[in-house]
Amino acid sequence: YPALLWLNRIWGPWVTMMFVALLTGFWRFGLPGLTDDFAVQHLPFYWWYEWCLGFLIADLRARGRVAFPQANVLAALLLPLTVLALKLNLSAFLTWLLPPLAFATLLQAVCANSQPLGRLGRLFCQIGISSYSLYLLHNPILWLVRALLKGIVVELPPSIVWILVFGAVFIVMQAAAWAMFKFVERPSIACGGWIERKDLPPVPPSLTPTCATSAP
User: Fold this and answer.
1) Mean pLDDT lowest for which of 77-86, 122-131, 155-164?
2) Can you tell me the distance from the alpha carbon of 2 to that of 15, in angstroms, rounded to the nearest whole number?
């Protein structure tokens, strides 16, 4: 993240994003021909493009700008193209490039919606608030449950097993994520805010995050 902020300061978000996409593309498709070292191949640059798309949206939004003009139209075009590329397995490059881009345009289109949240929207908002903890916890829990169920559901296709396992343990994962958010993330955010107020100049209002304050 510090490297990304430094590049963004020098080049701006668009050139930075193009550089990141090129670097990640090389890491995924060029580097395996140079080394078979698993640790080197799976350094954070392997996922940098996907992660930085979120940065691009957030950074421009904080400046009162948008990353993708007509994001709803782009999302409507990119989502079926993504499904087609994945279904037909058109190329490894397209199946890597399109899904994050389609999701990014969809994310911006949703963020641009100023309508009040309905009941379903509020439910997803609660899941979203604890989504970072869910991200940290989901893989260990899924692998643990998969190991426990191994041998019981061997007759089912692996994809069906994963769907069933994920559906069965999602409530457990969400409860664990919410507990981690409440007892780890929120105290850490409060601690970071105290350090910021104590040692750093005030943050401009346009850059002050609001998601933490929306949590109950």
Assistant:
1) 155-164
2) 17
Sign of CA dihedral 159, 161, 167, 169: negative
116 versus 152: the higher-pLDDT residue is: 116
Judge whether 135 and 115 are in contact, CB under 8 Å.
no
Cβ atoms of residues 81 and 90 within 8 Å = no
Q: Do 178 and 133 meet the contact criterion of CB atoms below 8 Å apart?
A: yes
CA distances, 197 to each of 161, 202, 203 (Å):
49, 7, 9
pLDDT: is 110 or 77 the higher one?
77
DSSP state, residue 212: G
Structure tokens at 109: 């289109």
Q: Is-contact 5 27, C-beta < 8 A? A: no
What are the φ and ψ backbone dihedral angles of 176, each rounded to 5 degrees? Answer: -65, -40
87 touches 128 (CB < 8 A): no
The pLDDT assigned to 208 comes to 47
On average, the pLDDT of the chain sits at 81
- Mean pLDDT (whole number) for 105-118: 80
What is the reported pTM?
A: 0.65
Q: CA 11, 13, 15, 21: dihedral to nearest 10 degrees?
A: 130
